[in-house]
Amino acid sequence: MAWLERFEPLAAAAGPFDRWLTPRREMSWQPSAVPIDGPVAKLGGQPSWVEEPFWPVSRSSGEPMTFIGQFPLPGSGIAMAYLFVSDEDGTFDLEGGENALLIQPGGHVPSFVRACS
Q1: I need a labelling partner for 100 at 20 to 30 A (CA). Which of 67, 71, 75, 116 fits?
Q2: Whether 117 contacts 54, CB under 8 Å
């Protein structure tokens, strides 16, 4: 991905797994001065939807899940993955209805994921 090219690789990693850990890229986190409302990687805030918004809810409580972040997907067009988790027990269960990874555009919403009405 082109945005990753801006980051400098680290020279080496200390420890017994040097070969496995190098080359590494160093990233820094900075708060945005303005809302991020485009198809870029980000953590927290509000999603920047590529298609119609689809906010998943917890299967057990019916409450909206927490938006964790959005991540661009490789390919020729704009495609995003949106990660959500709930505060309920069971987020470790892949099909428990307490977490969701949504893909737009054209992603399939699994039957165990429900949306806010």
Answers
A1: 75
A2: no
